[in-house]
Amino acid sequence: MHLSRPTYPAFTPAQNSSRPIAGTILTPFQIPGPLHLGEFTPYGLKPKQRYYSSDPAATTTITPITNHDAYHLPPQQQHVQYTPYNNNSNNNNNNNNNNSQHLLSPYPHQPGAQYYHPLVPQHQPQYSPPHQPGYRPHGVPYYSSYTDSPTPTDYLPPGQNLPQQQHLHPQQLQQQQQPQPPPPPQPQQHQQSPLVFNQPTTSSPPNAMPRGKVAAQVAKEPEIMESPVRTKFPTARIKRIMQADEEVGKVAQQTPIAVGKALELFMVQLVHKSAEVAKEKNSKRITAPMLKQAIDSTNEWDFLREIVAKVTEEKEGAKSGGRPKAESDSDDDADTGEVRKKGRGGRKKKAAV
Amino acid sequence: MSDHEYGGNDDLSLPKATVQKIVSEILPASTGVSFSKEARDLLIECCVEFITLVSSEANEISEKEAKKTIACDHITKALDTLGFGDYVPAVLEAAAQHKETQRVREKRGNKFEDSGMTMEELFELQQKEFEEAKKKQSGEA
């Protein structure tokens, strides 16, 4: 208040009379242009984000995600969704024609489209022994995981999950070819690398992970195609486990992250291997003996044999005989017992120190 | 030296929920394959063993190189030695990405750079803002 008087002695009564109006009207209209665009903010909020969030287009921020949920719908619906793109590219650009058709055509009969084609209907029977209806989806994990492996041929085998990933590829390419896509969600996806958004949908149910977390990971790792795993191990825990070995001294900041990644890949292999074992046994449930068998069958996992040795083979035999549930329960008890023992050992160590 | 960190319980194993989540990401529910509880516990033990193995191997390597700190490099070498050479590229990538995000995070703090304006522009804007505020104030007064 005292500011206004000394600094504006020149203010005339005339100005004073118009003052109230100026005071009220000024703020909304006379604010310089950039302010409306959110570019000015030297104080506080980040301008760009503010701009987007206040912009009507920002509503799209949410749409793409819900859109992805739609990928869980049966494949036909997805095709319906994509057809417009196809038409567009045909109209707009002949060069795109080949690509977009190749990528988007949902049905198999074009040779070029084979790579991206789900092939679901024809091949499913392979994975569904008729006597075991519940067993049918069994084939999926391997292929969905193989899609992550670097060898391109692994994309070919059919799997239920494949359509999702495949259709997302064309979508991504489409975005690159066509900067102005018809539906509103597209620009947002463009920013946020759609590839990774897809991954959670293929590897886990949509609700399995909070969206914010997914987005954060998206930002972190835009290109991970080789692993379906989105969740990260807690690095602090990994570091602690590493340093539990008294010989291990200092550990660089990056190291637990590297170890965590290696661990993740290791887990993926281990789980897949044991899933294969389970598949061989026509079981839907992976049990400890199956894990053991998977470990025993792989040379690099020699170091796990000791750990796994306590799992007895007998139970395995009994299991394939008949009542897997009851068996696995009893197995459970035995196992947790040992785990607990181990835990105590760890604590003792701590107490001793 | 870091013994005081062993405060919590279950410290030397991996969180079950996280492992379970990762397992179900590897084997999505749509596959119909589930992982039994005892298998998961066994898996956790295997994972811990894996970490221990890799870190002790990496430790040896770092000692050979007369380094006191285990770096990423040692981990990748250890993975190679242990027959997990195929993990190396992905591990390196993850580490690099982590570095990248950290750098971005550090940068993010600078509001002035974020504003995309020069300091003079910002100053002008500030002056303008002050004037607006003054007018408003005197208008109300």
Automatic annotation (TrEMBL), chain A:
<feature type="compositionally biased region" description="Basic residues">
    <location>
        <begin position="341"/>
        <end position="353"/>
    </location>
</feature>
<feature type="compositionally biased region" description="Polar residues">
    <location>
        <begin position="196"/>
        <end position="206"/>
    </location>
</feature>
<dbReference type="GO" id="GO:0001046">
    <property type="term" value="F:core promoter sequence-specific DNA binding"/>
</dbReference>
<feature type="compositionally biased region" description="Low complexity">
    <location>
        <begin position="86"/>
        <end position="100"/>
    </location>
</feature>
<comment type="similarity">
    <text>Belongs to the NC2 alpha/DRAP1 family.</text>
</comment>
<feature type="region of interest" description="Disordered">
    <location>
        <begin position="80"/>
        <end position="216"/>
    </location>
</feature>
<dbReference type="Pfam" id="PF00808">
    <property type="entry name" value="CBFD_NFYB_HMF"/>
</dbReference>
<feature type="domain" description="Transcription factor CBF/NF-Y/archaeal histone">
    <location>
        <begin position="232"/>
        <end position="295"/>
    </location>
</feature>
<feature type="region of interest" description="Disordered">
    <location>
        <begin position="312"/>
        <end position="353"/>
    </location>
</feature>
<dbReference type="InterPro" id="IPR003958">
    <property type="entry name" value="CBFA_NFYB_domain"/>
</dbReference>
<feature type="compositionally biased region" description="Low complexity">
    <location>
        <begin position="156"/>
        <end position="178"/>
    </location>
</feature>
<dbReference type="GO" id="GO:0016251">
    <property type="term" value="F:RNA polymerase II general transcription initiation factor activity"/>
</dbReference>
<protein>
    <recommendedName>
        <fullName>NCT transcriptional regulatory complex subunit A</fullName>
    </recommendedName>
</protein>
<feature type="compositionally biased region" description="Basic and acidic residues">
    <location>
        <begin position="312"/>
        <end position="328"/>
    </location>
</feature>
<dbReference type="GO" id="GO:0017054">
    <property type="term" value="C:negative cofactor 2 complex"/>
</dbReference>
<keyword id="KW-0539">Nucleus</keyword>
<dbReference type="InterPro" id="IPR009072">
    <property type="entry name" value="Histone-fold"/>
</dbReference>
<dbReference type="InterPro" id="IPR050568">
    <property type="entry name" value="Transcr_DNA_Rep_Reg"/>
</dbReference>
<comment type="subunit">
    <text>Forms the NCT transcriptional regulatory complex with nctB and mot1.</text>
</comment>
<dbReference type="GO" id="GO:0046982">
    <property type="term" value="F:protein heterodimerization activity"/>
</dbReference>
TrEMBL record, chain B:
<dbReference type="InterPro" id="IPR003958">
    <property type="entry name" value="CBFA_NFYB_domain"/>
</dbReference>
<protein>
    <recommendedName>
        <fullName>NCT transcriptional regulatory complex subunit B</fullName>
    </recommendedName>
</protein>
<comment type="function">
    <text>Part of the NCT transcriptional regulatory complex that acts as a key regulator of ergosterol biosynthesis and the azole exporter cdr1B. The NCT complex binds the promoters of genes linked to azole susceptibility, and especially represses the expression of cdr1B transporter.</text>
</comment>
<dbReference type="GO" id="GO:0016251">
    <property type="term" value="F:RNA polymerase II general transcription initiation factor activity"/>
</dbReference>
<dbReference type="GO" id="GO:0017025">
    <property type="term" value="F:TBP-class protein binding"/>
</dbReference>
<dbReference type="GO" id="GO:0000122">
    <property type="term" value="P:negative regulation of transcription by RNA polymerase II"/>
</dbReference>
<dbReference type="GO" id="GO:0017054">
    <property type="term" value="C:negative cofactor 2 complex"/>
</dbReference>
<keyword id="KW-0539">Nucleus</keyword>
<feature type="domain" description="Transcription factor CBF/NF-Y/archaeal histone">
    <location>
        <begin position="13"/>
        <end position="79"/>
    </location>
</feature>
<dbReference type="GO" id="GO:0051123">
    <property type="term" value="P:RNA polymerase II preinitiation complex assembly"/>
</dbReference>
<comment type="subunit">
    <text>Forms the NCT transcriptional regulatory complex with nctA and mot1.</text>
</comment>
<dbReference type="GO" id="GO:0046982">
    <property type="term" value="F:protein heterodimerization activity"/>
</dbReference>
<dbReference type="InterPro" id="IPR009072">
    <property type="entry name" value="Histone-fold"/>
</dbReference>
<dbReference type="Pfam" id="PF00808">
    <property type="entry name" value="CBFD_NFYB_HMF"/>
</dbReference>
<dbReference type="InterPro" id="IPR042225">
    <property type="entry name" value="Ncb2"/>
</dbReference>
